[in-house]
Amino acid sequence: MKYKKAIWSYLVVVFALSYLWQWVIYRTGGVESSLFPLMMLFPGIVAVVFRLTTKEGFRNVGWGLRRWWYVIPVLIVPLVVTIGVAFLLTTFDWATLSDKHFIFKEGMIDIRGIPMILGTHTQHIAFFALNLLLSLLVQSMMGGIFTLGEEFGWRGYLQEKLLRAFGLNRGLILLGTI
């Protein structure tokens, strides 16, 4: 019974904060608002607050980086797959590159409207490839910070309580539904 109360309390607080934040986002430009990604931190922040106020601690979260080198493929593989798919799609004429953001001409590339780590000036294809790779890597790491809030909240806090209250199958189905 104590797990069900913790589950409901957590969900009410997370959803109330999220809907309040969505109202703020709506009032400040909608989906284009720079405040939008911050909403992903709410489940994690609420989980930390709940763990601290209930003195539950963080020992049972189960997160540990035993093999730190696993982080390298986690960062590199999505980048390689994304670039590879884009290359294949354009090579076989299944898609065309839009000139909205990148203009290719005579081995050089003009970049428009997209922030890049090494700048958006006219670039040679090799420099552009490095710039794109670095930019995607940094954006992936920045996105990882925001998704950490959701993972810590849903998996690090709520999942354990759902599994204890409802068992493995029903608990995971409920977590996926939520």
Describe what this molecule looks like in 3D:
The chain has 178 residues and is mainly alpha-helical. The chain is built from five helices and three strands; from the N terminus they run αααβββαα. It has one domain (2-177). Helices cover 62% and strands 6% of the residues. Strands 1-2-3 form a three-stranded antiparallel β-sheet. Helix 2 crosses helix 4 (125-166).
Distance between the termini: 19 Å
- Evaluate the radius of gyration: 21 Å
Number of domains: 1
Structural class: mainly alpha
Strand arrangement, largest sheet? 1-2-3
How many helices in DSSP terms? Answer: 5
Taking all residues together, what is the mean pLDDT?
86
- The parts where pLDDT drops under 50 for at least 5 residues are none
- The fraction of residues in strands falls at 5-15%
N-to-C series of helices and strands: HHHEEEHH
Helix content: 55-70%
Number of strands: 3
Main sheet attributes: strand count, strand direction, barrel closure: 3 strands, antiparallel
Describe this structure in a few short sentences:
This protein has 178 residues and is mainly alpha-helical.
Task: Using brief descriptors, characterize the structure shown.
single chain, about 180 residues, mainly alpha, 3-stranded antiparallel β-sheet, 5 helices, elongated
Helix and strand topology:
Elements: H1 2-27, H2 42-53, H3 71-91, E1 102-105, E2 108-111, E3 123-124, H4 125-166, H5 168-177
Antiparallel strand pairs: 1-2, 2-3
Helix pairs in contact: 1-2, 1-4, 2-4, 4-5
